[in-house]
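User: Teach me something about this protein's shape.
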Amino acid sequence: MKFNIEFLKTILLVFLVGLSLLLTLGLWTYQGDYETASRDLAAEAQLDGTDATKRDLIQPSQLIIHDGDAPFGFVDKHVEQDIFTELTTWNLYDFQIMSEETAFQKENYNQVIEIVFPASMPFSLINEIFSTDDTMRFDGKFKRVYIILDEEQTDHQIIFDDGNPDGIDIWAGVHNMNQIIDFFAEKRDNHSLTEYLTKTIYSDRTVYIPEETDIQGRKYRYETINASSTNFLNIFFRNPSSIASSPNDESGQVFSDGQREVNVNGYAMEYNNFSIPDSQTDLEDDIEGSYADYLLNNSVEYINSHNGWLVEQDMNYRLSRLNDVTSSVEFRLIHENYPIFSSQGLSSMSVTYQNQNVYQYNRPLMKLTLSYDRAPTDLMTGKQLVKYLDQSDQFNWEDILDIQIGYKLEQQPGGQIFDLIPTWCIETYSGWEYVTRETKPVNQGGNPNAVGSN
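Assistant: First, the predicted structure itself:
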């Protein structure tokens, strides 16, 4: 009997030692329930958004009709988008560089359509935006597109204008000009028009200000992203188990692995990759096409890789800045074809590159969802705005780059609702600024609220 007890003790001891060894081996080889990235960034992780194409993202900010000396446009901004969608189906051909002798002057034509884009874009994008079989062999950019509505103009009816007096402009022909003229006539006959006030600041900078607008504000509920979730952190870190978390000065949170950092403030974030060398390598041998095209392609692909476009059916993002000097690209949130601005980084996404790697990534961590009506907002007319700017100590005309009607994104007290408040916004060298907090004419003389580049 004593022998049997000692034998059982020995068997139990061997079993426990073996179990201990198995558990130790399991801890040594355990890698977690995630996949590590094969690149700097883990494309396996996803947000609850969509992807986008360059054609989705590249849209004009204004469409101006020049009829003699009187510029005007459509009150309803949706009409502008419909026209541009139609324009992308026209067959363009015979692209040529414009010489000094053939330089375009819109004053020489009775009717010209001017399409203004928020950012200068490389000529190489013409093949992707418009319908053409021609190969884009020109090295340059365009900021504006002019369409000459003249039946007698048998070729070179489309001009892609650099916007810089020293830049290269190109022109192209378009088939079926008579049908195009009829198309614009039909739009003009069936939609309300408004006069545009023109302010020519320099020879290369003209600002158009609509006299009337038809912009309606909305209230929105919203959803947020859990920045501490493994799925989210996998986008930015190779191994989320190595991340340290600490509070920041804005009552937010910082996630870092020593080389990369995600700084969360409210419903926005900034990612920085400090492991990229500061020295800029020579990119010409490694990049096909223009550097601006490279930046746009890679930033769209990067955001697509984690389904980062958080939009609903009446919201979308548009390209708003493409800067090959700072290696940065910005996409702005758009509602009903009007831009949205925010001082908390909630209305735009930007990607900055260094040595062909994502160096910085700024974006909102929220999505506007269910919307409600809100009370109408009285805005200055275009003439009232011009008068205000003429008398303002806050703005100088020579510092103004653009003027847009858009929305101020503002969270209501209580935090459950965001307001889209119609307002005039002015772009200077410091970024975008609201004209005032209150938008009634009697109150629009106060200090503007700066919104920076957001």
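Now, about its shape. Residues 54-210 form one domain. The two ends are 83 Å apart (CA to CA). If you'd like, I can walk through any region in more detail.
User: That's plenty for now, thanks!
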